[in-house]
Structure formats: C-alpha cells, structure tokens
Model the fold of this input.
Amino acid sequence: DAMVIQNPRYQVTQFGKPVTLSCSQTLNHNVMYWYQQKSSQAPKLLFHYYDKDFNNEADTPDNFQSRRPNTSFCFLDIRSPGLGDAAMYLCATSREWKETQYFGPGTRLLVL
Amino acid sequence: GESVGLHLPTLSVQEGDNSIINCAYSNSASDYFIWYKQESGKGPQFIIDIRSNMDKRQGQRVTVLLNKTVKHLSLQIAATQPGDSAVYFCASYSSASKIIFGSGTRLSIRP
Done:
C-alpha cells in the first residue's frame, strides 16, 4: 500500500505559469519534506514542515512556496516556473526529525 | 562545509557477485547514516540505516559497515541480482541536523 503519494506523476507547465504539486501520506508522520532532484544528482532539500512549523532552506528560491493544511497533505507551489525548474520533485516524510525518511514516487515537472 | 561523498559514480558487477559501495563523510559528529536505493523514474527507497554506536548492521542481503575512525561507510550487497540495478545514495545528518546526501553511485549488473 502506498504510504507517500504524489500527484500528478508527470506535470507539464508553461514558462511562468503557476503550478502546484501535491503530496499525501498515510503514515501520520510529523515531518514532511520537499526535495528537488535534477538528473544524475542527489536530492536537494527545499523546505520541510514539522507539524505546522515551516522551515525554508536558505538557498531555496522565493519562487517556491509550500502549504501544509493538515497532517496528511503538503503542497509545493511554483509561482513562476522557469526552464531551470524542470526536475523531479520528491516528497518525503519522517515520524520525527532525524529519523528515516520515506519518499514518494516523485513528480517529474517539465517546463515548456 | 560538511559533505558526504561516494567514492565511485558508477560500479559494474557480475550477477551473483557481491557489490560494495563506499561513502565518506566529513562531519565527525554525524551519528546517523542511511542508504537509499533509487531506481529509474522512482523516489529513493530506504535500504538500511546505522547509528554511530554500531559498527555493522545487517539486513536481507545487505550489510552496512561504519568506520568512524576514518569516517567511512560502506554498503555491501550479497549475490547481486538484476533488480539491484539502481543509483545508491548514502546520507548522513549534519551538525545542524540537516540530512546531507552523497552524490550517488550507479550500480549496473552484468549478466
């Protein structure tokens, strides 16, 4: 049974057109993370939530925002996607901070 | 800054042989280490973890070894199978408790 679910799996958007990626979890974990992963590179942490507390990485562009309306759901909003934002976006959860992270299958974003 | 690095970006192994993927880390205060497997087009999948109070931990066909003296971590896969083909990432937590991923090793299996 899927524990971390990401929708859609593939997303095509136009340059500058806002896009929202979604993540849901059935694990009831406290922490949810969003990563960006470009081809052949390690995942790069964008931000994370501990419950409703939001933590932004210092080098995450302002173009990227996130919302966590409840324990189960977390959204990644890209306000004005550029060509450089084309990547795989991974959602992960962990029960507590500094515990094993469980990843979703990812959403591959293509920007035209 | 703190870093986690894989020794080889690619590794080719004969099917049935054992695979060893190595990783080095820079922060001597790191106390939790994880290995992830990522197949093409999928998210990373947890394989095994180890905390700094242990030197070795075994799972099903996988063993992780931790050498804190030289800040080295390895993943051993016994009797490598075609389904083991993937990119393997080691990860550790920094002094600021942020996870740091290594750059990944792509494991390919020769028939």
Summary: Chain B has a mean pLDDT of 90. Chain B is about 0% helix and 55% strand. The CA atoms of residues 18 and 43 of chain B lie 24 Å apart.
